[in-house]
Design brief:
By secondary structure, the protein is α/β, with parallel strands linked by helices. It has one domain (2-223): Rossmann fold (3-Layer(aba) Sandwich), CATH 3.40.50.300. The chain has seven helices and ten strands. It has helices at residues 44-51, 74-84, 100-110, 115-128, 144-157, 174-189, 201-204; strands at 2-12, 17-28, 33-37, 59-64, 67-68, 85-88, 162-166, 193-197, 209-214, 217-223. The strands form two sheets. A six-stranded mixed β-sheet has the order 6-7-8-3-9-10, sandwiched between helices. The protein has a four-stranded antiparallel β-sheet with strand order 2-1-4-5, covered by helices on one side. A hairpin with a 2-residue loop joins strand 4 and strand 5. Helix 3 (100-110) crosses helix 4 (115-128) and helix 3 (100-110) runs parallel beside helix 5. The longest helix is centred in the last third of the chain and has 16 residues, at 174-189. The radius of gyration is 18 Å and the shape is globular. It starts with a strand and ends with a strand.
């Protein structure tokens, strides 16, 4: 489904290239639940951003299916980004001017989901995450943990083929974190490909494959 070949990302300084990612070769099959682990600065978030088409400044090849991302026109990449990927960010990235309900609705509008279906999907997610009473609040009126839950609900609302999650439980207490990982497990059983970056080994144990990174390189790649 996804293949990276000899992928490098670097910054040119006056005297040398500083590599953020170096020589990444990675194949991800449809329906995998893959975890990226490693210390801060290992390149996990950068790799997630490239996989999610949020960063195009790299060298090497990225294939989605049999299509080369670099050979696509900007419009094709944008369409792929909106239709196939869901994102959970460490910094939430909620839209301040939109309510909880409207934030969750955003990916469904991109996908032209009919109004009645949108209402049903959002109602189910609100119920699942105990947010019904907060649907008309704005992000600034929520705690960090609540904002993270809204970000997760938004990411899975459109049932993306690929779900990318950067420290998805970092702002949640242990009970919420376990609940979210169980939701991921359920999505995985339904066929969603999940790629998460985390420091939490207990989160990795919910997946099927663990990749450890160090200094921008893949150190180990093993099935769980």
């Amino acid at each position: 489904m996804i293949q990276l070949k000899n992928l490098d990302k670097f910054i040119e300084s006056r005297f040398q290239r500083v590599f953020i990612l170096k020589g990444i070769n990675l194949t991800i099959g449809e329906g995998e639940f893959l975890t990226l682990m490693g210390p801060s600065g290992a390149g996990k978030s950068t790799l997630l951003n490239i996989l999610g088409l949020l960063d195009e400044d790299y060298e090497g090849e990225y294939f989605f299916g049999d299509r080369s991302i670099k050979s696509m026109k900007e419009r094709e990449r944008s369409s792929l980004h909106k239709s196939e990927f869901g994102y959970i960010f460490q910094a939430y990235h909620l839209i301040d001017e939109l309510t909880v309900y409207e934030n969750i609705e955003t990916p469904l509008l991109y996908r032209n989901v009919p109004s009645s279906e949108r209402k049903s999907i959002i109602a189910n997610l609100m119920d699942r995450f105990n947010m019904v009473a907060k649907k008309d609040l704005f992000p600034a009126q929520l705690s960090g943990g609540q904002q993270q839950l809204v970000g997760i609900a938004r990411a899975i609302a459109g049932k993306p083929k690929v779900l990318l999650a950067d420290e998805p439980t970092g702002n949640l207490h242990s009970g919420q974190a376990k609940e979210i990982m169980e939701v991921f497990q359920e999505l995985h059983r339904e066929g969603t490909t999940i790629i998460q970056a985390t420091h939490a080994r207990e989160n990795a144990d919910f997946g099927t494959r663990l990749i450890t990174m160090l200094d921008g390189k893949i150190e180990t790649d093993e099935s769980i």
